[in-house]
Design brief:
215 residues; four-stranded antiparallel β-sheet; 5 helices; alpha+beta; Neuraminidase; globular
Amino acid sequence: MGLLDREALHTISEIKQLYPMIRNSLSRMGIYSANQLVQEAYSSTGAREDKLSKLLTYAKESLEELPKFGSSNSTISTSENANNFGSLSLPRDLLTATSNGTNDRGVFGGGRYEGQDTQYNIIDYITISDPGNAHVFGTLRTATVGLSATSNDIQNKAIFGGGVYPHLPQDNIDTIDITTSMNANNFGDLLTARSYLSVTSNGTNNRGVFGGESR
């Protein structure tokens, strides 16, 4: 009996909805796309099926417990469903994003068009207070997926680190000035090449930290 029947995950679209919530765990199992997850859900047996079953069940329960406010275009102080904000310059997943805080600009970098498995080095930008489609800001140095980004807030510097290109983990750290459309420059290197990592910063105090990894 396939995983879809066993866990009553009735539709392919539902499995694809759950995929982003457990993407990091799936990548360690050699599953790198929602389409691949669907195939595994139909065909896996034994221990691998049991592990996938537990991951999908966990994601489904987590999804049902999420508060009802979204990330597209919402008032953060008020619980509400998300509204449409706009579109990226190209449809893609496995990208990253950051902003310059109260200076009102958000940037998105990297990603992949799943249907073609094509990776992009595009950086898009939006004005957060003004819903609308994203515009091309510039490019990263490599077409990377599974990378992470942070900034020093209103001081306007963003960094993008790690990721996968084309099939290998990277140690690159790129940097941009968020207020000025430009191509990314070299900032430095991570200690080890890794992907699907996390990053944060202490804002205007200028310290960023990367943690976790998938090698």
